[in-house]
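input
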Amino acid sequence: MKSRLSATGYIKNNKRTCFVLILALGLTFMAMYIIAFILGATTESFRPIIFEYPRRISFAEVTANAYSVKRSDFETIEEYAKAYGQEYKAFFEALSNDPDVTKVYDTQFLNATYNGVIGGIGYEFPLLPAEEIPFVAEHLGAVLTGGRMPEGEGEVVVDEIILKNGKMKIGDWFLENSYGQVFKVVGTLRSDGMACLGTPRGRYNSGWGFVVLCNDNSKDFTKLAAKYGVHVSEENGDNISDAVTYKKLWDKDIAGTIDSVMKVILLVVMIFLTISVLIAYISFMRNRVNEYCLYASIGYSKGEIYGMIMREMIILFLSGIVLGVITSLGMMKILDVTVMEPRGLVSAWFMKDQLLRILGAFAVIVGILQIPVMLSVHKIKTIDLMED
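output
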């Protein structure tokens, strides 16, 4: 009774040839996963700013159009300004009395910036009287981790990750290239939303408007304003930064863009990998024609030979995946220590979607390889017919 054809015999006797193929598969797996790891560090790093920060604070620069105050309805600019001022004040009072608004400020704000591996994100933070800052910090869940809270004009406390990302430290000027020597960093904060706070210095700012300390019921500023007959929109020229606008930014310009880049890179790598593996495997099987014919001559069926080839293929691919996982872990650790941590970036080591895509790509390649495998098996002859 003949035994089952071994799927490891050829691999054991041809270690160098098989190792080269396993190495190629492993390095390809690593390349695809590491690219996702690097690009994913941007989305992971931006996530707190997008989803945590606007749950507790919103910013709104509301134009006269939102109050239905039109210049054409007034004879003089003074009348127009007075009507606008009255609506503005009434809306401020309405927001202040809203049960879902902790507090609202009519104040200046600055932009903090956070640079990912690719691209960056800017977000507002308020400039307030020094006595208000501890209250707002508490609302934002921010804890002082170094230095002190602002006391004088033009002083800011900055989230420690933002400070590291911007290569700043306590005592430096905040974003000197953007704001000059105006705002000095006097302390660091830690919070889920990377909060920053500061005191004004004259009228040097990035904007001026409503700063709303909100909750989950009031984080949609457009909906909140509509309760009081104020209709804000981008078409009116209103500038809103709240949970809704940040989510749109995430879907369109951050997660959506990076996911598209990942898919394109994966497709390109998969095409080259498929061509390379296809050529290698065709050569691999051509060199074993006599071996396959010998198996057929001693009584093994084509189905049994096909099963052996597939078991060999599965062993090689699984070995390549294992090698790819090991090398990916090592490379991610190196990148974390040398790139991510020094820049204050957050990285995700386990990326389920990308892992499934890579495994899916490998499965597709195995499927494509069925074509040359089936052709080779179909052409197998016994030794006495090999010369025909």
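quick obs: Residues 384-388 have pLDDT under 50 and may be disordered.
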